[in-house]
Amino acid sequence: MDPKVVLSLENITKRYPGVLALNKVSINFLEGEVHALLGENGAGKSTLIKAVAGAIDIDSGLITINGHAFRKISPHISRELGVEVIYQEFNLVPALSVAENIFLCEKNEQSALFSAKDIEKKAAAVLAKFDVGLSPRSMVQDLSIAEQQIVEIAKAVSKKVKILIMDEPTAPLTVSEIELMFKIIKQLKEQGVTIIYISHRLEEVFRISDRVTVLRDGCFVTTVNTADTNRQELINLMVGRELKETYPARIKPQGEIALEVTNLSGNGNRDISFAARKGEILGIAGLVGAGRTELAQLLFGAVPAERGEIVIFGSPAKISSPLDAIKHRIGFLTEDRKGQGLFLDMSVKWNIVFPILKRISKHSIVDTQKEEEIASHYKERINIKTPSLNQQVINLSGGNQQKVVLAKSLAAESDILIFDEPTRGIDVGAKQEIYHLMTELAGDGKTILMISSDMEELLGMSDRILVMCEGKLAGEVHKENFNQRVILDLASGSN
Q1: In this predicted model, what pLDDT tens digit does every residue of 280-330 receive, in sequence order?
Q2: In whole angstroms, what is the distance from residue 325 CA to residue 328 CA?
Q3: Chain-centre distance of CA 347, in angstroms?
Q4: Residue 251 falls within a domain, yes or no?
Q5: 98 and 143 in contact (C-beta within 8 Å)?
Q6: How many other C-beta atoms can be found within 10 angstroms of the C-beta atom of residue 126?
Q7: CA 256 – CA 165 distance, rounded (Å)
Q8: 310-325 burial string, b = 16+ CB within 10 Å, else e?
């Protein structure tokens, strides 16, 4: 018997001003399958899942869910038919308990019918399906990211989910948390739940998915059985061209010491000491909570250090604020580019020149010609894809937003660049562009500190790797001795 089609999309088309986001896309999703949805940023994945969830209206086409066909569908109807979406930004109330979050709608609608004890009992029954030891009484604000994700899944299961859409579900998770996530996905699949899995991590796609659909520039490219394809084929299908070198070849740097850190403490870190050379890409590894981002914040002055010394090109540097760091030519590409790295409602041009506005202004009036020249230069240099320098940054893809953050640091003439999760949430083509840019910058003599949770990325891009564990440096691994197991052992405190 042929598998049952639970979701059918037929000729789905959606236009935004100046953009054809979806162009006659047709896909069938089967009962009890893990169906991966792949494509570069801007390919149409997010628009497609919003259409299925009823978050946006399509311009034309037909959405059929469990035999019910719609030209337009509301979020309420979509959920009534068993569709649940777990977005990258969780929809939870931090000040409420796990149980209250799981049954929030029921609690609000039928508060007289459910006591706190009843809700906790029902939540415990749902959580028991996943065998994760999560208490229904725990406050969501006290949970890890992985545990919050479990709460989101529990919410979906409590509503008798039939189609679960997961958008980059493992992006913020550790290796062990990812394993737990895969276990839960397997359980849901065995229960007949259809899972639409959106990810840029191809190794995950091959591990857990049954079929893969590729979108490109708003168009359907193909649907294939995962077992019948390979990584390179999928990459080529996504980008429309062959990408040969994921990690560019590099010559080991031999430059002078650009940054020397001695006994740096604060922000949860203790006695951090290391040196980085001009032209070096120094990887920083560690589990979530190891203190990597906290170290970056200390170096950039976002959080003042309690003690320790920072020396830049042989001269002691007192860094107590980001302004001090910028003056010492340190640039910080935060992992939270939307929340901390960019002014989303401002233009590409304004974001690029913001750190140097004083430099290009006279009597508080910006030299618009210089502004245009500088922004145009960096747009071309790092290939920011935007219809105009006046385009709001919020309308760019994730990869191009990341390039704008980088352009800011380059415009400020930074010699030391801190990259915190530089490729999180961006597609394979944009990743390769970022890698080539990093390689070029290192070749130009820039010193790069790269914090990454992607082990393949760390091994592929770094000249050396520092490993952090619980706010301290656990070890250092040189390129000739790179070994994933050694790094994970150091990160977990096993060595």
Answers
A1: 999 999 877 789 999 999 999 999 999 999 999 999 999 999 999 989 999
A2: 5
A3: 22
A4: no
A5: yes
A6: 20
A7: 50
A8: bebbeeebebeeeebb
Q: Is 343 left (phi over 0), alpha (psi -120 to 50) or beta?
A: beta
Among residues 116, 121, 196, 118, which one has the least CA distance to residue 156?
196
CA 293 to CA 335: how far, in whole Å?
8
CA distance 144 to 98: 12
The kind and range of the H/E element at 13 are strand 5-16
Report, as ranges of residue numbers, the positions in the chain whose pLDDT lies below 70: 1, 105-115, 172, 174, 241-245, 252-253, 339, 494-495
335 Cβ contact list (under 8 Å, min separation 6): 293, 420, 421, 424, 451
Tell me the pLDDT tens digit for each residue of 33-43.
999 999 877 78
What is the pTM assigned to this prediction?
0.66
How far, in Å, CA of 394 to CA of 401, rounded?
8
Indicate whether 88 and 141 sit together in one domain. Answer: yes
Do 303 and 159 share a structural domain? no
* Coil vs helix vs strand at 234: helix
Q: What is the CATH number of the domain that holds 119?
A: 3.40.50.300
Please tell me the distance from the alpha carbon of residue 139 to that of residue 330, in angstroms, as a whole number.
Answer: 38
Vertex 142 angle, CA 138 and 147, to 5° = 75
Rg (CA), the chain: 24
Tell me the three state secondary structure of residue 83.
strand
Place of tokens 């850190």: 261
385 in the same domain as 275: yes
> Could you tell me if 235 and 261 lie in one domain?
no
Distance of alpha carbon 313 from its chain centroid, rounded? Answer: 33
Q: Do 201 and 64 share a domain, yes or no?
A: yes
The structure tokens 């010609």 sit at 369
Q: Is 149 in the same domain as 275?
A: no
User: Which residue type is seen at 382?
Assistant: I
User: What crossing angle do the helices spanning 145-158 and 175-190 adopt, rounded to 10°?
Assistant: 10
The encoded tokens of residue 482 equal 């790179």
